[in-house]
Amino acid sequence: MKRYWVSVLNISLLSSALLTTTALAPVSVFADSPGAISSNPQVSTSIENAVPAFRNVSVHDPSVIKVGDTFYIFGSHLQVAKSKDLMNWDSVASGVTDDNPVVPNVTKEFAEALQWAQTDTLWAADVIQLADGKFYMYYNACKGDSPRSALGVAVADNIEGPYKDQGILLKSGMWNEISEDGTIYDATIHPNVVDPDVFFDKNGKLWMVYGSYSGGIFILEMDETTGKPLPNQGYGKKLTGGNHSRIEAPYMLYSPETDYYYLYLSYGGLGADGGYNIRVARSKTPDGPFLDAEGNDMINVKADKDKPLFDDRSIEPFGVKLLGNFLFQRQIGDPGTGQGIGYVSPGHNSAYVDAETGKQFLIFHSRFPGRGEEHEVRVHEMHMNSEGWPVVSPYRYAGLEEDTAALKTQDIAGQYKWVNHGKEITAEIKSSQTVQFTADGQISGAVTGTWSLEADNQVQITSNNVVYRGVFTHEWEPDSQKTVLTFSALSSSGVAIWGSQMTAMKDQDIVNAVKKDLSIGDTGNVFFNLSLPTKGTRDAEITWKSSNTSMLSATGVVNRPRTGKGDAKVALTATIRKGSAVSSKTFNVIIPQQAVSPLLGEYTFEQKKLAKIAQDFSKNEYHGQAFNVVTSAISSKNQAAAFNGTDSYIQLPGIITDTTDFTFSAWVNWSGGGAWQRIFDFGNGLTRHMFLTPAQHTGALQFTIHDQGRDQSLIAAEPLPSNQWVHVAVTLQGDTGTMYVNGKLVASSTEITFNPKDLQVTEAYLGKSRYTADPFYIGSMDNVKVYDKALTSNEILRQAKEKP
């Protein structure tokens, strides 16, 4: 994407557009923008495409550069990947370790920056090729909990390295000391020198835009021969932000069609709960002033200094928000599986324009609904609307073959999943609503208004007196595995709306699809209230009837039989209606009786068939399923469960479903190894769980219960002793949590307010974490006991004296 300029060629395109690929189909993406030549419509009424293939990669903060026919992305933690089609990515390097091929001996090569920043990792990198043909990597290291950072440059003859350090260019976070501009460093007005983007303007002049949080986003004039800042600029010129506002990750892209420089920014926090979102402002010159769609000068956008740090409310009205947390929600009866297609905290983008085709791409990382902190790179096409603002296509780029046929109103008529991205900086996921576009230009359903088809498949949508301007495109929809019609549009206040057309269906087909797809989960052991859906796709109605309302109501309320009464059997019937079409589906539900207290489960591993079953010797008979676990003799009279650290674990049934107070007690012989192994991990997905690890990242024994997006933990001073039999126990009583090793208290807290019962445990493991990146437990366990009460310290001590 970034390449040197040759002034004699009189090129007026952005440097990112100088290298092209034949894999990208021609289409005009700047049609109807100011100064554009309207020629190529962007979509067709019917398109046949082969099923696209994707190979995903995790590169946080991806910055793109094209070399020959290959796209490279450089990101944080010295992660690098490459692709020839923006769809299938291969990892080139990852990790700030001395065996990283991009910067061999990186801890020595970048030692000055790492030492200054007091860190062992690197943040978002950016690479550009200058006139000497060499590749210049702008790297940065940051302490993380402060703006103490160093930004430097390294040079290589080859895009994949090896890069050699050319020194630090800027420093920040030098509290009470003279900073780069000759004044005492002040984080409210001076930048955090991270997140660089180095680019050429339309005249071939080199610039670097950078910054994160702290004092805002800055720009420097650069020497195109050395790749370093021109002298006597200090930190350069400020463009936006300040007072610790959560604005970061600047990226500059020039459009020759509109003659604007577009400054992309990420607002919010990058974590799954941080509300990261991508915004843009524009200017006629690379150093501003940058304005948003309402004409607000971005230099005035900053946090309120009289409010707590990182005040988002001060900044969220400003900038054009292109996308944030969203979900094209999958309804019952829709194609595919899961909850739908969407993103959580998408951000830190780069962008690319193909000079030959005019195609424009947004490259960013994103997290995903229900997947915690897992992140992957995504690439979306962008198009210019009639006001000269980029709009982002709703689905990832799939390399579709397009023709030039113009849409007709009857092609557009139909139901759509509609998403309004709003202006908020929030962890909330904006779920889709269903709307109807009619051929006469009306919009009804969850949103009302009008629409009109403009030239080159541009669209104007009006709703609640707000006008949105955008474009219709055809895109690949992953759930249906088909090409669908979509729209993306922006309001004059900088709010994005997206739409995805739904396939037309007859009422009976809708009912049949809902019936086939309808599920209430595992009906063999229903411990908790059921969430019974009342709507299916296309607003199909679902009503419920129970054969035993005292055990299971028609609204899903569960009343478990008392201990000794036996399990309850209930027939739960769903009736599905759409128009005059109707059908029913019956689920046979087993509601287990309440557990025998206080000992819920006891696992002594004395049985011969441990390879398959972990027998529960309590009265509840909560037998577990053993996977690759073997018996290991402790003595001639006692056996233990041995875990290989690779793929062995035990899965238990709903062992703590009624538990408010709690005790976990076990003898363990941990063999050591990587952090975050699990002695136990009980929970429900990634949002509600509790676990005990012999050693976390700082090398300490830790118990954590996680709910409502928060952790409550007990952390010992040391790791669990290894290569010896140790008794370990955790108790919860009221708001007090206590952790014991060999009968001695090692950690306690009176702020453990979450209860095991509230976790609604569906997965209970011994020896395995619910996070796939965590290692399996290696070692042995014996005499594992779980109680629905908190044992006293004397009771724990007595168990600790009973050697296995």
UniProtKB/TrEMBL annotation:
The protein's annotated pathway: Glycan metabolism; L-arabinan degradation
UniProt keyword list: Disulfide bond, Glycosidase, Hydrolase, Signal
Coiled coil location: none
Family matches, as InterPro entries: aBig_2, Abn2_C, ConA-like_dom_sf, GH43_arabinanases, Glyco_hydro_43, Glyco_hydro_beta-prop_sf, LamG-like
Domain LamG-like jellyroll fold: 660-794
Region forming the signal peptide: 1-25
Family: Belongs to the glycosyl hydrolase 43 family.
Protein name: Arabinan endo-1,5-alpha-L-arabinosidase
